[in-house]
Specification:
single chain; 330 residues; mainly beta; Pectate Lyase C-like; 10-stranded parallel beta sheet; 9-stranded parallel beta sheet; 1 helix; 34 strands; globular
């Protein structure tokens, strides 16, 4: 393939890119640019030969490939390929059906204002639908729009890892900004409750009463298992994490910051109804009233462990001063 035309340290032929997103590209690297030189007729294998649309890159990648999207606003309805099956040899994967790929926004740093923007004005489902396992999405501004009732949807239609199905366990989403200032738009949907998902160091902001930052719209499998929701900021939203009635199972919800808003008043901070055996620790659990930990802002699942969270509700059951040492009493 053509040499990667981007500043990087090469170790053993592997390009390693610095910055907050800590990108290591093990196999082919494709570039997308809607500005000068971008064309879906290009090879995509350098900045000078970049594709013009993100979907072209998604239709091209094979296992462990990387897509780097350069600055700009991309109005597309995006879908990864379906799970191709359990091939034992990476090179047998079909183009456009990549597993364990990376979709990376090129920007100046974490949550940068110049981050590439993904949105969808004319569609009717989601801006980005992930249908294969192990994808990483990092470094984007992900924006709700009139054609996107969901910004990102992770699909898990069955538990048997059957070929040619929507099967996206092991997704990682990090260092993105989910911007929800539009009616009837949700942020991140665990459709079918995919397991082993990591949601790390993102910002969710300005989701109004008709939208939720993180939810599970349906599940024919069970709860989302062994997930980690960590280091995220929930700013000025009505509903932050509302997994009711499915909930998380055996997951860690740790070190997040859930704040009451300036424009929006918090109604749901974290509702784990239907879930069980989760650790909820080290979070800041904000609210609009002095009794926010003791009402429907926060609801535990069966067998959860809520400990060491900060709350302004110092009079609530299972709190000592600002700290929680038990489940919220609702």
């Amino acid at each position: 393939m053509a040499p990667t035309n981007l500043s990087a340290l090469n170790v053993g032929g592997v390009p390693i890119f610095g910055g907050s997103k800590e990108l290591v590209a093990y196999r082919k690297v494709y570039f997308v640019s809607k500005h000068t030189g971008g064309s879906d007729g290009n090879s995509g294998l350098s900045v000078d030969q970049a594709f013009k649309t993100v979907q072209k890159a998604l239709d091209t990648v094979s296992d462990e490939d990387t897509i780097i999207v350069l600055r700009g606003s991309y109005d597309e309805q995006l879908t990864t390929g379906q799970f191709p099956g359990r091939q034992s040899v990476l090179d047998k994967a079909v183009a456009g059906r990549g597993r364990w790929c990376q979709l990376i926004g090129a920007s100046q740093g974490q949550w940068a204002f110049d981050a590439p923007q993904l949105y969808n004005e004319a569609g009717s489902t989601a801006t980005l639908i992930v249908r294969a396992p192990g994808w990483r999405i990092s470094g984007f501004r992900l924006v709700g729009d009139t054609g996107s009732p969901i910004i990102v949807r992770l699909q898990f239609n069955q538990a048997g890892s059957t070929a040619d199905t929507n099967w996206a366990p092991g997704t990682t989403i990090d260092n993105c900004v989910f911007y929800g200032a539009v009616a009837n738009c949700d942020g991140l949907d665990f459709e079918g409750a995919p397991p082993d998902v990591r949601i790390l160091d993102n910002i969710f902001e300005l989701f109004p009463s008709t939208g939720t930052c993180i939810l599970s719209s349906s599940s024919g499998v069970a709860q989302a298992n062994r997930c980690t929701i960590s280091g995220n900021q929930f700013i000025d939203n009505v509903n932050s994490i509302d997994m009711n009635p499915r909930g998380f199972n055996a997951s860690n919800i740790i070190n997040n910051y859930i704040m009451n808003g300036h424009v929006n008043t918090l109604v749901v901070g974290f509702d784990n109804t239907g879930g069980n055996d989760c650790l909820v620790a080290g979070n800041y659990l904000g609210g609009d009233t002095a009794d926010s930990y003791g009402d429907a802002h926060y609801v535990a699942g069966t067998g959860d462990h809520w400990i060491g969270n900060a709350t302004s509700d110092s009079a609530a059951t299972n709190t000592t001063g600002p700290w929680t040492h038990g489940d919220p009493a609702t």
